[in-house]
Amino acid sequence: MKTITITRPDDWHAHVRSGAVLKTVLPHTVRQFARAIIMPNLKPPVTTAAQALAYREEILQAVPAGFDFMPLMTLYLTGSTTAAEIKMAAGSDHVYAFKLYPAGATTNSDSGVADIKAVYPLLEAMEKYDIPLLIHGEVTDERCDIFDRERVFVDTSLTGIAGSFPGLRIVVEHVTTSEAVQFVEAAGANVAATITPQHLLFNRNAILAGGIRPHYYCLPIIKREHHRLALVAAATSANPKFFLGTDSAPHLTSLKESACGCAGCYSAHAALELYAKAFERAGSLDKLEGFASFYGADFYRLPRNSGTITLEKSAWTVPAAYGEDSLSITPLMANEELSWKIR
Ligand code: DOR
Ligand code: ZN
Question: Which has the closest alpha carbon to 180: 202, 147, 142?
Fold first, then answer.
C-alpha cells in the first residue's frame, strides 16, 4: 500500500471553541497535530494572559488520554489592550501571539479593532517585546465587494503595518488571493502566511454553483480559480513563508444551514488528509512535510516535532456529521470520499 510518513505536524490556526463543542472537535486536532495555535475569538474574547491560561486548562482537560498535545494560546487584540498586557503576554510561557480582527470582519470580531492606525502603539510594543501579530486581513467597508476585501486590505492596511514595523513578526492568516501571496513573498522574512485546506482545494463555485452550500462558506470567502492556483503554487513551493493553518472553524449544523449561516469550515476531522489531497493533485506530495511540519515551527522559533505520522492511500467516506444530535457539526466534504487516511 502506498504510504507517506512525515514529521508530526502542527496546526498554526485552529478554532477549538469551548464547552461541549470543544469536547467534540479537540480529539480530531490532537490525533494529527502536536501543537496548535488556538484562536481567541470566544464569547467573550480571550483578551488577557490570565484568561488564556484558564482557556488552556479547559483545552488540556479535553485532550483524550494517551495523547500529547500543546495548545499555543493567543490573545485577542482590542482597542483597550495595553502595552503592559503585551509585555506580560510576551513574557508568559503559554501565550504565543496576538490576533488582530478588524471589527466586524468575521465571527465574534465585534470586539476587534475599528481603527488600525489607533493601535500602532500596541504593534510597536509587540515589535519591541517580540511577540507575533496574527492578522485577519480583510477590510470591513460594506461598500467593498466581499470577494475584494482581502486584496483591498493588503493595499490599505497590511503594506502600512509591515512598512512601519519591520521587526514585527506578522502572520497573514488564511491567505486567499494571489495579491496576498505576492505581498507575503515580497515582504521580509518576518512576514509569513497560513493557508487552509478549503482554499487549496476549492474555488468559489463550491459555495454557489448548483445550489448554496453553506459548509463551504468561510471568511475570507473562497475566491476564483486563479487565486486557488496561486495558493497551491505558494503552498507547494517550499517557501518557508507559507505553512499549514487549517482555520478549522466548527459551527453547529443548525447555525450553518440557516437563512444567515455562520462563516467557517470545519476541517479538523480530516485536516492532513485534505492537505494531502491538495498536494497530491499538484504533484507535490514531497513538499507536504515542510509546509505541515517545519516552516511554522521555524517561524514561531519553536523546536520541530520529533515523532512522525503516516498517511496511507486508503479510501474512506467522511461522516455526515460529528457530535450528538443537537450539537451536530457538519464537516468539510461530508459524505464524500477521501483517498488518504491517517494510519
Ligand atoms: O470563516 C471563519 N470562521 N473565519 C474566521 O475568521 C473566523 C471563523 C470562526 O471563528 O468561525
Ligand atoms: Zn480563523
Answer: 147
Q: Which DSSP category does 311 fall into?
A: E
Q: Whose CA is nearest to atom 7 of ligand 1?
A: 107
Fold of 3-342: TIM Barrel (3.20.20)
In 3D, which of 61, 78, 64 has the Cα closest to residue 27?
Answer: 64
The count of other CB atoms within 10 Å of the CB of residue 54 is 11
d(CA 262, CA 103): 16
- pLDDT tens digits, 11-21: 999 999 999 99
Q: How far is CA 186 from CA 100, 182, 192, in A?
A: 22, 6, 10
Closest ligand to C-alpha of residue 14 is 2
Q: Where are the domains of the chain?
A: 3-342
Distance of alpha carbon 76 from alpha carbon 277, whole angstroms: 33
Half-sphere exposure of 178 (CA within 13 A, CB side): 9
Q: What proportions of the chain, in percent to the nearest 5, are helix, strand and coil?
A: 40, 20, 45
pLDDT of 324 above 90: no
Residues with CB under 6 A from ligand 1: 15, 41, 106-107, 136, 218-219, 249, 263-264
Which positions ≥6 away from 11 have C-beta within 8 Å? 29, 32, 33, 35, 36, 37, 244, 245, 246, 248, 268, 271
Other CB atoms within a 10 A radius of the CB of residue 268 amount to: 32
**Segment 239-250, tens digit of pLDDT:** 999 999 999 999
Instruction: Tell me what the pLDDT averaged over the chain comes to.
Output: 97
User: Ligand 1: which of 77, 247, 265 to mutate, judged by most atoms within 8 Å of the beta carbon?
Assistant: 247
Beta bridge partners of 133: 98, 170
